[in-house]
Give the backbone structure.
Amino acid sequence: MAGLALGMAGSVAVTGLFTAAWPMTAMGLVVGVLSATAMSWHGILLSETARLAPAGSAGAVTGGVLSFGQIGALLGPFTFALLLRLTGGYGAGWALCTIPALWVGIRLLRPRALVEGGKALTPG
């Protein structure tokens, strides 16, 4: 998941740098990486959510996770369009889209504390 998030952040950031001078092949490569990362994380996230959910509550837990995704699907395009109107260019919108993916990628790379019997343990 961290690799997907960082790949998405990088390709989104590069997309914000596109100009008319970019070769079509280079843009195609970047958007190919963006598509591969932005479209593949959903299934992995939901399968991991269902796997880690308490017994008998996979549906409720995955539904809760999906609700946050839908909030982003609603607010993301609105915010992107607002930034386009305010700045007159796409760069600010793409830069804003980079932030959550970069944050998640970095967060997932950090070691997680394991909890056993109410005590936090360090993996390893």
User: Anything to note?
Assistant: The helical segments are 2-15, 24-38, 41-52, 58-87, 91-109. The mean pLDDT is 86. The two ends are 20 Å apart (CA to CA). Strands lie at 114-116, 119-121.
